[in-house]
């Protein structure tokens, strides 16, 4: 055996993005379980349950900052978690470096676009656009 085969591996300097991606997947998965079950319990089990779900119910939830931030956090974590998982799959199975780079960029751009649009919807949601008196939104929009 030569001395080259027995030499210890060199560590790369800088941030280990793969390690932090792995840590993020574990932490965000746990947080997402809490957020999703909280979301399901508050929407399906509390009050009248599934029978209470309508446009006015969602308008009432989006009128409070707590639920806006809850849903935005759930949206951001779910999209970043999913995009990171897709990035890992692409890195594992796509052999061509140019195709890999293009797919990773496409995944990142799609996730970023959905995060921006979803966040805008949550924080700019106005249930009273096109409001007609006598409907389900009388309490919210009057």
Structure explained in plain terms:
The protein has helices spanning 3-6, 17-45, 55-61, 65-93, 97-124, 138-141. The longest helix is centred in the N-terminal third of the chain and has 29 residues, at 17-45. The protein has six helices and no strands. Helices cover 71% and strands 0% of the residues. The protein is mostly helical and 142 residues long. The radius of gyration is 22 Å and the shape is elongated. The model has no long low-confidence stretch (mean pLDDT 87). Pfam families: Sdh_cyt (PF01127). Keywords: Heme, Iron, Membrane, Metal-binding, Transmembrane, Transmembrane helix. InterPro entries: SQR/QFR_C/D, SuccDH_FuR_B_TM-su. It is found in: Membrane.
Give the class-level CATH name. Mainly Alpha
Straight-line N-to-C gap:
84 Å
Q: Structural class, from helix and strand content?
A: mainly alpha
Sketch the topology as an H/E string, one letter per element.
HHHHHH
Q: Uncertain segments of ≥5 residues (pLDDT<50)?
A: none
Q: Name the CATH superfamily assignment.
A: Fumarate reductase/succinate dehydrogenase, transmembrane subunit
> What shape does the CA trace take?
elongated
Question: What would CATH call the architecture?
Answer: Up-down Bundle
Strand content: under 5%
- Summarize the biggest pleated sheet: none
Number of strands: 0
Keywords: Heme, Iron, Membrane, Metal-binding, Transmembrane, Transmembrane helix
InterPro entries: SQR/QFR_C/D, SuccDH_FuR_B_TM-su
Protein name: Succinate dehydrogenase hydrophobic membrane anchor subunit
Subcellular location: Membrane
